[in-house]
Amino acid sequence: MNQLDSNREQWNSRIGFILAAMGSAVGLGNIWRFSYVTGENGGAAFLVIYLLCILAIGIPVVLAEFTIGKKAQSDVVGSFEKLAPGKPWIVAGIMGVASAFIILSFYGVVAGWTVKYFFSYLTGGFTVQDSSEYVGIFVGFISSPFQPLLWQFIFMSMTIGIVYLGVKKGIEASNKILMPSLAILVIILAGYSLSLGGASEAFSFLFTPDWSALKEPKVYLAALGQAFFSLSLGMGALITYGGYLSKKEKLPGAAVSVAGLDTLFALVAGLMIFPAVFAFGISPDEGAGLAFITLPSIFEQMAFGTLFGLLFFLLLAAAALSSAVSLLEVAVAYFIRKFTWSRKKASIIVGSIIFLMGVPSSLGQGIWSNIRFFDNDILDSMDFIASNILLPLGGLIIALFMGWGWKKSDALEASDFGDSALGHAWIFTLRFIAPIAIFIIFLASTGIIKFE
Ligand code: PHE
Question: What are the structural domains, with CATH classification, of the chain?
Fold first, then answer.
């Protein structure tokens, strides 16, 4: 055990860790998932709940995960075993590994779509007469049985390849260039999209709340799930990454930077997608294809559109890759320790199983589209179970563990807060505010309590 411990990998630098955590957070969640979930749940009012979730639950739990990981220097399950042997908190670890399998299974499918779009632009772009054709192109592609599986396979192979190479050479190195480039491109595209004529409608959709949207019980859970998904929270990705930290990092600053950047990314992505939604007369509640339909419509209008399309989908696929890597790493780190597998063996076996688990999500867009759970297709159902249930439940347990399962002084010290007012506020949030908020949102989503 000790020998294994001293062989554990470490980040090269503090900035390397922060970038990797940002790489995990920023991904399809900020662009693909954020835009369609916001669109389906009424826009601005949803956004308010989402931002509240980030502030009151997200940031405190991000810091709790970093703290647990850094203290334990282990994977999700191992961290709970080490810090609280024989205690029931470990269910959060087991749920975390399960969530990694479920989320990456469908994440790989959608990421495969982005790789395919990249290649379409690489080979000259789409030929359309009218931007309305992008709906048909998208649906035609995702509903075909074989093609999407091929792209999912390609994407998953790249994910496995990076995890196989290890923490420093694989994960850390790739994020340093990608994140800044993607940020610049999203800002340029938002600027262009705002000039297309849908800007004022987009602004009122995103920033003028129609509070009646909050009568829908599903809105709260959707906002909570989106906050967890986007922050990579509640399943130990951040515990696992924190586990590769050396002892001398300042965690609160890192938690705020990661959450702040992730949120900013989503908001700017909203300013990129929604003006185009309105300019091209697409419905904001179009669903999971929203980004794949609006973005090509934007590129269609731009000078050098094919080049922008190519760059954009390249960077989006890369952002998805750094998130997928963090998902796979959660499971791989666990298998390496638990079964003393080599990193190589674990990445290939676990990654292949996850690829196979994603096949139904892909086929559910076409030949298996009659398989539905509460009117959701297979992909949406996997997403719902993991993002809206497992992640918030994991986050709830992590908050309670840090808030109640640790001695307060230990928690304050391990988080690098020390005996400060902010530190005490953090513990108070973990003890009361975050758990109660999650609990109320769960209740609200069942319709037992109503906000009118
Ligand atoms: N946060 C990632 C994204 O926004 C997805 C993710 C979820 C990654 C959970 C790791 C853990 O795309």
Answer: 2-445 (1.20.1740.10)
